Amino acid sequence: MPLDLSTSPLAARWPSHHPDFIQLYTEHTPNGAKVSIALEELGLPYEVHHVSLAAKEQKTQEFLHLNLNGKIPAIIDPDGPGGAPTGIFESGAILFYLAEKTGRLMPSDAAGRLETLQWLMFQMASIGPMFGQFGHFYKVMAGKLADPYPVEKYAAETRRLYSVIDTRLDGRDWLVGDSLGIADIAVAPWIWCMEEIYRGGDLIEAQGFANLRRWYDAITRLPSWERGLFVGK
């Protein structure tokens, strides 16, 4: 949506020192990391604004001016479509926008773009929600539930999704095409969250997925991963 930073309520709460840069409103989460890793990989100048989830800043009127759904991340591109300042929310939409804007991190042919979109939606519709539910019941609710069913249910689904990724990567280095793309950048921070934040790797036998491990190791060695992962912290 068209959004002029100079007149937006966002500027009062999160002042910009570099209004000609992409403005990134984020927190240290898998969804937030997707965008900062992509921005680092693309080498685009951006300015970070920390939106505290603990303080529920994502639900403030200032932030809702950018994203009515009250979720991070979101960006403002001062040089959006037609050269107009443009606000964009939803991490998958932001990744797709950045890939189209730069002509990178996504195949240029129609078939490759469609394939990328499918795997990006796979992450948005399946990996994020299911891994998140696993984390909620396995870590947040640890010791508070007598019924093991929720953990067992979401552990099984998480294991199945690991298997989908592992099967896709059989004989492939990347999820789509022959180089790193936005589909890889969308999925990898959720693997990190599952194993490093939720600490659920042993339960789902994460080390048994050899193709996924090879792919994940390659991504986590990238300079853009190191620089982008903790941007919102």
Automatic annotation (TrEMBL):
GST N-terminal domain residues: 19-106
GST C-terminal domain ranges (all copies): 109-233
Xref: Gene3D superfamilies: 1.20.1050.10, Glutaredoxin
Family stated for the protein in its record: Belongs to the GST superfamily.
PANTHER family recorded: DISULFIDE-BOND OXIDOREDUCTASE YFCG, GLUTATHIONE S-TRANSFERASE-RELATED
This protein's name: GST-like protein
Organism: Marivita hallyeonensis
High-level lineage: Bacteria, Pseudomonadati, Pseudomonadota, Alphaproteobacteria, Rhodobacterales
